[in-house]
Amino acid sequence: MNIKEQQGAVVLDLKGKLTGGPLLERLNHTLDNFLEQGKKNFVIDLSRVTSVNSSGIGILICSYSKVKNNGGTLKLAKVTHKIQHILSMTKLNLIFENYNSIEEAIKSFG
């Protein structure tokens, strides 16, 4: 996971398999730190995620809930076709705002 701040948003670039384990702890810790600093706008870049399982979907849902419960907004960017299909099947595409680029996601925070 790479982290950068860009135009007032925190961009979390995930890579590899989104399957739970240490990534969940790291992501939770990262979100907690930024939320404590008063950061409210988050974008998760999924372009380099090769696969996702139910635990990975759980990570996205937990992250979304954590940010929302702290007054922030979490959006997805560059979702691969495979992951978009999973989000559609689970109807999570109705919950997550999904953008073709990080720049579009950041602009949408307005």
List the helices and strands and how they pair.
Elements: E1 2-6, E2 9-18, H1 22-36, E3 41-52, H2 54-69, E4 73-77, H3 81-89, E5 98-99, H4 102-107
Parallel strand pairs: 2-3, 3-4, 4-5
Antiparallel strand pairs: 1-2
Helix pairs in contact: 1-2
Q: Kindly provide the radius of gyration, computed on alpha-carbon positions and rounded to a whole number of angstroms.
A: 13 Å
| Distance between the amino and carboxyl termini | 26 Å
**Gross CATH architecture:** 2-Layer Sandwich
Q: Assign an overall shape.
A: globular
Integer average pLDDT? 95
Main β-sheet, spatial strand arrangement? 1-2-3-4-5
What portion of residues is helical?
Answer: 40-55%
Give the CATH level 1 class.
Alpha Beta
Strand content: 25-35%
Order of helices and strands: EEHEHEHEH
Question: Can you tell me the number of structural domains?
Answer: 1
What is the makeup of the main sheet?
5 strands, mixed
Question: Could you name the ranges where pLDDT drops below 50 across 5 or more consecutive residues?
Answer: none
Per DSSP, the total helix count is 4
Q: What is the number of E strands?
A: 5
Oligomer: single chain
Q: Please identify the structural class as seen in this structure.
A: alpha/beta
CATH homologous superfamily annotation? STAS domain
